[in-house]
Give the backbone structure.
Amino acid sequence: MLASMKLIDLVENSGEQIARQWSGDVIKNQRTPFYHNLSKERIIPQAIQFYDNFKRIFTAKNPYEAAGEFFSRYAEERYNEGIPMHEAIYALVLMRRHIWLYAEFQATFITVVEQRQALDTVSRTILMFDYAMYFITKTYQEQMRREIDRKLGPINRIRLDGPALGGKEKAGMKTSIMAALLAGSLILTYYFHAVLGTGVIFTHLLYIPIVLASLWWTRKGISVALFLGLILILSHYFFLKGVPFTDDIIRAFMFVMISTVVAFLSEGLVTAKAMYTPSPPK
C-alpha cells in the first residue's frame, strides 16, 4: 500500500511536470504523427487532465465505473479534435510510460520491499489502462456511428431507415409505396403512349421508383428498372407503331444503368453503417 500511495502522491504532485515530459515525447514519436503539428500548449492539458484524475480512478471502489466515466469523455474529446483512434490510444500508453519513467528518475521505489510492493501498483495501473483501451475504442466507435448517421440523415430518411419503425413496418411501407409508384408508372405509360401518342417527358418520372427501389433493396431493386424498361418497350410496340424504337430502347437501358449505380452506392452505405453498428447477440 505504501508503494501505491507513493506513486499516487507523485502523480498528484508532479502531474504537470510529467505532462510536459510526455508532450515532448508525443509530438516527436513516429507512432503519433497527428500530434507532430500540435503545440505543446494545446496537448499538455489532456495529459494534465489524466494525471489529475489518476488518483480518483486508481483508488475508486469501482475502478471500472470510474474509468468508464473519465475515459469515455477523454475519447469523445480526442475524437472531436480529429485525433485517430490508434494515436489517441498510443498517446495514453505514453502517459503511462512517463509515470514510470518519472518515478524511476525520482527513485520513488528505493527499498526491496517497496519494489516488491510496486508490483501490485503495476498490476492495478495496467488494469486501469485495460479499461481505458476498452472505453476509448467503444466511444470512438459510437462517435463514428453518430457521425455517419448525422451525415447520412437525409439519405436514411429517404431509405426509411430511421429507428421509428420496426423491420416489418418498414418493409410493408416500402412495398406499399412501390406498388403505388409502379401503378402510377403504368398509368402514365398508357396515357402518354395510347392516348397522347408520345413518349416525351413522362419517362423522367419513372426514375423515381427506379431510384427508390435501388436505395431500398440494392441489387434486388434493379428488377424494378428491368420491369419498367420492359413495359416501356412493350407499350411502344403496341401503341406507337411506326415510331422508331431507338429512343425508348436507350431509355430502358438507362433505367438499368442508373438503377445499378444507385444499388451499388446503397450497398456501400449499408456496409459502412454495419461496420460501426454492433450486431445483436444471436
About this structure: The radius of gyration is 31 Å. Residues 2-151 form a domain with the Globin-like fold (CATH 1.10.490.70). Residues 112-151 form the longest helix (40 residues). The mean pLDDT is 85.
